[in-house]
Amino acid sequence: MNETINTINGIAYCQWPIFIHNCIDSDYFVIMYYGNLITSIFLFLFSVIVLIRRLRRNNGLFTDGVVAPLEGFVGFTFMCSIMRIVCSVIYIYDFIPSNYAIRGLIEDAQWVCSVLACITYLAGVFIALPKMAFFQPSSSTQRIKKLYIPSSLLIKRFYWSFVVIQYISVQASSFFSGLFRMNKNSFLTHLFYMIRSFSYGFGCLILVFGFGIYGRLLINLTKQSFELIQGQGGIVEAFGGESSIKDFVVDEKKGITRVITRKFRILNNQENKSAIELRKRRFRWRIRKMQLFNFFITFSFFYWAIQSFIIGIWYDWVFSTTSVSKNQAFSGCIVTSFIGILMVLGILLSDMTLKEDTNSATELTLSNSNNNLSQSISIG
User: Fold this and answer.
1) What structural domains and CATH numbers belong to the chain?
2) Rounded Cα–Cα distance for residues 374 and 380 (Å)
3) H helices of the chain, where?
4) pLDDT in tens, 30-82
5) Is 101 exposed, middle or buried, given 0-12, 13-18 or 19+ CB atoms closer than 10 A?
6) Residues 249-299: pLDDT tens digits?
7) What pTM was estimated for this model as a whole?
8) Cα angle vertex 155, ends 152, 160, to 5°?
9) What is the C-alpha to C-alpha distance for residues 97 and 22, in angstroms, rounded to an integer?
10) How far apart, in whole angstroms, are the C-alpha atoms of residue 341 and residue 338?
11) How far apart are CA 222 and CA 262, in angstroms?
12) Cβ atoms 346, 47 nearer than 8 A
């Protein structure tokens, strides 16, 4: 590139989130975006399949004032895959090569969607924790740590505040960084790119904190609930009936009393031990999937939080050091897409398994007698 603004110490290094042509090792970064394009197409297809399957079940898109966890996660992942495809095509064929403002908006949209997908799922974790009907004394010798669980109102406010602030801060700073790059103002270009990187980094740290603490808590409580059920006869395929517990909740704002009925399946002890062992193995497999899901999100966003802060502070060093820049491009284009594909595939396989064997999941149904709303929390 002949423009001074796109060089570092007089050398045209590829700054892969912005441009990948007419710079050092251009072919490598073009290949990375080809890989990004191919993997994103698969991510798009799997996301569409999962969305169609879940929407056919008439699952609501909103729950407790936030986007439904799984539907929201897959929905934002679907949008992320579209933006990754569009971004790859633009960069590979070098469309709008000098319009860095539009390029920045499109490139960052894919990252914002991935953050919003995971914060939506995390909001579902916070909503699920207080509703764990099995959170009661059991024979387990593990001590339960006391952690603050925010109210549903606080969760709703934080969720929507995070969505708006994260989207505006990242997109606006990216747009202005590109705009000043077009005007060849190096100082303001790097300043707004640093703001963009820090905004994304802090968003990633919030996800790391949430999944690292509360995501693990949900998994541990699920394990303890299984132990409690096993102590009362085990999770089996045939059920002898249902039992229920009614709670009366006073809504002071509306001046009404709601009756919340928690229904539990009564376990049939007639099934043989081999079938019970099969249930245990299936449950352990589902727990492992939950653990892997939680680990991938926590590790991925911890990695990108660190990378974002490094880019924000040492921008020139990152892109002028070929090995560092190539490693980031590989992680951002290839590894991230594969992680997204694995997560969506895990949800798809769980949905297919749940349809064939609905009783193999630990299920809790909450029915509201006033508005006939029902929710289901299942481990799939």
Assistant:
1) 4-234+274-363 (1.20.1070)
2) 18
3) 26-56, 69-92, 100-128, 152-182, 186-210, 216-230, 273-313, 315-320, 322-330, 336-356
4) 999 999 999 999 999 999 999 888 888 766 677 777 888 888 899 999 999 99
5) middle
6) 555 556 665 655 655 555 455 555 666 677 777 777 778 888 888 898 999
7) 0.76
8) 130
9) 11
10) 5
11) 17
12) no
Angle, CA of 187, 104 and 295, to the nearest 5° = 105
C-alpha distances (whole Å) from 100 to each of 15, 90, 173 are 12, 12, 12
Residue-wise DSSP of 228-243? HHHTTT---SSEEEEE
Could you give the CA distance from residue 74 to residue 69 in angstroms, rounded to a whole number? 9
d(CA 287, CA 342): 16
Which of the 8 DSSP states describes residue 253? T
- The DSSP bridge partners found for residue 251 are 256
Which three-class secondary structure state does DSSP give residue 15? coil
Residues ≥6 apart with Cβ < 8 Å to 375: 63, 131, 365, 366
The owner of tokens 């680990």 is 295
DSSP for 42-96, written as a single string = HHHHHHHHHHHHHHHTT--SEETTEE-HHHHHHHHHHHHHHHHHHHHHHHHTT-S
Residue 24, SS3 per DSSP: strand
Mean pLDDT of the 128-135 span: 64
In this predicted model, what pLDDT tens digit does every residue of 317-352 receive, in sequence order? 999 998 999 999 999 999 999 999 988 888 888 777
> What residues are paired with 378 via a beta bridge?
363
